[in-house]
Design a protein that fits this description.
Number of domains: 1
Largest sheet: 2 strands, antiparallel
Distance between the termini: 75 Å
Radius of gyration: 23 Å
Bound molecules: zinc ion
Structural class: mainly alpha
Shape: elongated
Amino acid sequence: MRKRANLKVNTQQPVVPPEFLETARNSVFETKAKKTYRCRVCGADGATEQSEMLCWVCRRLKISAWREIEQQVPLSE
Ligand SMILES: [Zn+2]
């Protein structure tokens, strides 16, 4: 009796929601389909068009450099 009740619950309420499965499938596909290039700064593999042909290291350096510049620029207004 107890097993049957559990089965009924499982079929009505899937443990993983279908939307989540869809998202997971898409992200896996994206990772596989994403073409990588050589970083235009340091030449390391892993650069993408989305990251402006920069590897993640150079991209992070660039972002932190931007932040520094923003902090150094005096407010002229
Ligand atoms: Zn790089």
